[in-house]
Amino acid sequence: MHKKIAAGLLAGLTAFTFLLPLPRAEAVDVWGAAAQALGIFGIYQSSLSSVLAMGNNVHAQIQSRQQDLKENGRDPNRHDIDVVNGVMQQLVGQADYALKDNNLPFIWSVNDSKDFNAACYPTNYVSINRALVRGLNCDPDEIAAVLGHELTHGLEQHSAHNYARAAAQYYGLSFLNMDAGLMDWNKLAALADYSIAKNVTLPTEYEADKGGFYLMTSAGFNPGGGAAAMARMDYYFTYETENPLEVQSIDVKNKNQENFNDHPDTS
User: What is the pTM of this model?
Assistant: First the structure.
């Protein structure tokens, strides 16, 4: 009974409050904040839907491969391609996973890039750089660890979700800055980049590491391939790479400094 009376009083007070006119400034702030929140949510949903739709488009998938090979060329070494084809066929054919209804089957190519990298496009096209294959000494288990990681990005549709979250964060911080004038726009952009790197991209990289390990082991690859690949990557980025953007400092103090890195450290 006491709960019913209290509820009735609360309902009456609430109704009475809505009948009272709010000061104009407060009303504008409330509705403005609500409109901005809805706008940010709309940006997130629109961005997510657009990238997911592109990711389920066969023509976009083919264009992804064509663009990659046009920009980077095709690896001329047949052995590189055969090793990668063997790894990918084993992963795709034997690993324990299920494609979502709006997820295309994986396709892949080995390009001629000198950067130590691989990537899974939103279309589930997996691009593997020649430098990565050579940097891992064409070892199937190590390559499987990296490509299992990339397949997890595709299976979980990380590109679409990360893009949508990043767009929402950019617009959210922009709205906040327009209202409150907290900082200049260059600092705001840096803050947004840092937030996206650490709060959006980095968690999905850890998820891809975990998922990639499961995929490679369920497909029959050596579980030690992941650790070996990380050790080799650490050495490559520290001592071998010719790309200044890839160089990893050997100074422990520099490694421990806060940075904008959106991937886990290799050491």
Answer: 0.77
